[in-house]
Give the backbone structure.
Amino acid sequence: MVSVPSVSTTPAVSIRGLGKTYRIGRGGERPTTAVEAVLQRLRSPMARSRFTEFDALDGIDLDVPWGEALGIVGRNGAGKSTLLKILTRVTAPTRGRIELAGRMGSLLEVGTGFSGELTGRENIYLNGAILGMTRQEIRASFDEIVDFSGIEKFLDTQVKRYSSGMYVRLAFAVAAHLRTEILAIDEVLAVGDAEFQRKSLAKMRDVARDGRTVLYVSHQVQTVTSLCTSAIFLDRGRLTYQGTVDDTLEVYRRSFEKYAVEQREADRRPGTGALRAVVVAPDADVFDPAETKRLTVRVGSNADVVGHYFVSAHVNDVNGTVIAQCDSRAVGGWFDPAKEQEIRLSLRAPWLKPGRYSVDVFVCQMGVLDAWEGAATFEVLPGSPYPEMTLDEATAQGVVLADFDYESSVGES
Amino acid sequence: MSQTVVITPPGRLGLPRWSELWGAREVLYRFGQRDVLLRYRQTAVGVLWVFLQPLAAAGIFSLVFGTVADLPSDGLPYFLFSYGGMLAWNVFNQVVGRSAPSLVSNQALVSKVFFPRLLVPLSTAMSVLLDFAVALGLGVVLLFVYGVNPGWPVLLLPVWVALLVATALGIGVAAASIQVKYRDIGYVLPWALQLVLYASPVAYSVAAVPDDVRWLFEANPMTWFLEAFRWSFLGLAAPAPWQVLGMVAVSGVVLLGGVLVFQKNERLFADVI
């Protein structure tokens, strides 16, 4: 088994003042050939290369004790994946210092390093080696890996002939049997069928129970809840909250609301601004699950805009998952920019589960004129649209409520 | 338990962590194994290619330089003479040619997983050495056929191969790291190798070079390697002692320089590739 230091006073991961700055080229593309680079230097020998700096991460201080499964949550672009990439040494930090008190293994993307021409068996050894296992370790867990992936019969078949499901299962199985003291996982549990996901999640939980440390990045709030023992919240490259999973997820959810307030000022929103949505209002603050949800979008006018524009409304649930994209192009909705428009959206299906929803509204032509995230929110009341009263577990799974029926007929044969 | 790993911003210049490279030697082996398997699986004639390449080249060279141009071949059959040259040249050419694009063609890996990246270009030497061993076996057969006995210098052959591979890896490793940023290395390198092939006495003998420009050829390190190679393999005249020292110095300097260039570029790989 993995040796884990009994002295739990030294943290597994210790991060001090960590920062990562990217240089983003301004004024044209970065040269991609040596000839271009030389030409550029010749044309403007005195010019310093022009770029703006962007802090993907800044001033991160963090200690992760042994045996902890730490969830890392944050909005898109908050720096979650960058943090994991630095911790796994795929990319180097710009500032700061990290101390890892053990070997770090990573599951950043399943199947990288798999070679289609090689057989399953050969790939297990190749991939295991790349992920940092010694030959003895791979040999020792070989049977377990094969067993876990369930591809025994195809072990000597070239991987390029595998189905995508088999491929992913094998890749995950190799990575999941890494015997490193610290394990970094980025969104990989969302692969395979439900049965395999359950197995994977259980495996990850075992890892943490062994006293090893797991760092887990995910957008799927459910898996963070079921896997992690604590969590941190990243906001635009800064660590703004550290605490229990529930508290952190609460902060994460609130961040959507805070963001929505900021976005109310049209000037702070992305998009060209040639046209802006002025008001986005649902007809009611609360709806029943099966009721048609109506929403009004008022868009300002601009006579200089040529042609017609369309709008797209994304409905997000409380975890930030986009559950519906209502794009007016799909139903032939094109609008005249010369006049102020009041555009009405009716969302009839699917039925929504009880909970809080936010709506992002985009006004677009060829490019995005206005992107208003969190333009409106509404609530769906607890209640079931179905004819029969059931226990909660009958509707617990799934993101939305489907309108469905069952019929039966007795087989004739 | 394993020791603490410290991650800090990289410095401008630095040597790799040797212990880390050694710890990841399994990766080197697996990469090499993959290269070998990939090349012989699903090819119609498989291992025959390894024979065919130097044989065809030596055949053409002996026809063009030996028969058409009627150049001297130090008293050996021209075919055997140029086969000996091709053996050495192929090692150099193939190591440079395969290691240079290795990082770009493994970019999915480089940007997703950490392992000492230096191992990617280094591992290409393994499949080349296997090819060399096969071609050398055929070369030994040729020696018997032509009745040539190189004598004791044949024992030094592994030394020359090691020095040649080190030189080629130095160039290949540097080229691989630069190619991550500038893709035109991929076009320039084959062309440059072609020039070196003609500028070095692979297909002809230094003795065929007129006296007034011979110093130019003598100054080419590739000449030293070829001379040493032919000494050990064909029993021709030994290279001058300064050339042997030169080989050691060149291979050391080029390999070290290549690794330094690689290390300097490495910190940008994941962000640039």
